[in-house]
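Sequence in, structure out. Go.
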Amino acid sequence: MPLIALTPSWNDEKRQMCLGPDYIDAVQRAGGAPVLLSFTDSEALADEMLSRMDGVLFTGGGDVNPACYGEEMLPCCGAPADNRDQLETLLLRCALRRGMPILGICRGLQIINVCLGGTLYQDIGEQYSHDLEHPRNDVPRDYAHSMSLVSGTMLRSIYGADEIQVNSRHHQGIKTLAPGLKINAVAPDRLIEGVEFADGRPLLAVQWHPESLQDRYPEHRAPFDWLIREASR
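Output:
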């Protein structure tokens, strides 16, 4: 059974790590053993933690600090979690060096794009468009809008469909795509909502939350099944 590293969220008020159970349930359902990592600012320790793992899941959570992509924080941006930005930057660097399979969800997509040289909209409504409502917090665990999957991509292959329905719990999104990534999913308002490596390395990242859908909509088990298959190689 492959060991899957999960990145933690941080509750500043309680001064403790936390993670929603949906990620754990989705990894276990796919046949993996989820392991919640601890915070560190040491690349050596981050690499040592990953040395015991077979894959990495960059989970959802709060906003990435705009300083990470060279911008001033706007009032529309959420409170940063610098310890998480630092941890995930180190983990991504180590995971890529090790050639590990990587799955990113929501914030996970955003931090991956930023770490590889891309930028974000700090708030979609203020900086991008009002054509589609992001987020739809009234239906956090159900479908909010359609999603077009790009032909010829790994994501299109694992879902086996040109269009799917997804939920939406994000107010930020990709503004400038990082070098080396290619788009694999696009929302009806043309916002980028999925990426993977152009060279085929095992990385998938999506803006929606399949972990909160996969218990009732089996098609959304696909990203986790993919991660476990890759981690089992």
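Check: The chain has a mean pLDDT of 96. The first strand starts at residue 3 and ends at 6.
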